[in-house]
Amino acid sequence: MAPGRAVRTRGGVPVILTRLARSGRGGWLLLVAGLVAAFALPWLIYPPVALDIACWALFAASVDLLLGFTGLLSFGHAAFWGGSAYCTGLIALHTGMPFPVAIAGGAVFTALLALPIGFLSVRLSGIYFAMVTLAFAQMIYFVANQWRDVTGGENGLQGIPRELFGLDLSDSFFFYYAGLPFVLAGLFAAWRIVRSPFGRVLVSIRANPDRARALGYPVDRYKLQAFVLSAALAGTAGGVFSVGHGFASLEGVYWTTSGQAVMMVILGGIGTLWGGAIGAALIVQLQDFLATAGFAETGIITGTIFIVVVLLFRRGIWGTARHLLITRRTPATPADVAAEPKKSVDTPV
């Protein structure tokens, strides 16, 4: 671009981004950019913090699968994150199995745990569903706290091994790449779920459950399946987190863990799936920065940022960006009409 030449925009959006969004190639470019960022992350920041971002990104995606695509706000997902952390740690400590088997065992455990909880919860909606899931999560917290012989009580499980056929994964930098495939597989599974016919039904249930029921869809069954799948993804994230840090604690099953995941989803954008990763990166990095600086009341800063983002970006950070690139209708320039003769001037961005 020549010096002093202005970038052509349409409605405040650069034309090149508009064309990418119209051509369908923008999604692939974002996917490549996301993968590059995921693999480069431990080179840019402290590896344990990079692992935290990856795990919380998957956890936020699991919450968004339920909130953004099914319309169910759960404050009980800490039970699955923390429950899987304990189960994964127990398998790794007492059986000596490789950590991938332990993580898979934790994910299966949380899926089984979600069956009765979801069966009793999905018949409700709105604040009633949120409160019931919160009550079940607090029950899991009470069990983890009182069953000291198994969970370690307030001390938690410590020294969870990273066994993988004799490989030395004691360095957090190397374990990041060993645990990253689980996170990427979980994110891919979430993406396939929302893009499948099953995901379309979930969206219709979110929009109008009575109409979906009238069309013959068993609404409660679909909600239960979404709840179990979401729990399994949250359990996968919790298992990677516990092995990566070598411990499982009561904090993982406390309700504030669920609240933090919900906050990440809202910051990134509800119903965007990938917005949770942006929210996770923002919150985890900010908490690490404040903790390193010796600032104890991190909740004040994160809460303030949350309020500002909600007020300025009602769709969240990524949701607002996607809205500008995809859903905003803007007039096309003569050059764009000549380049795309088959498209209307009012084609959505």
Automatic annotation (TrEMBL):
GO terms for cellular component: plasma membrane. The chain crosses the membrane at residues 27-46, 53-79, 99-120, 127-144, 174-194, 261-283, 289-313. It comes from the Bacteria. InterPro entries: ABC_transp_permease (IPR001851), LivM-like (IPR043428). It is found in: Cell membrane. One of its GO terms (molecular function) is branched-chain amino acid transmembrane transporter activity. This is Branched-chain amino acid ABC transporter permease. It comes from Nonomuraea longispora.
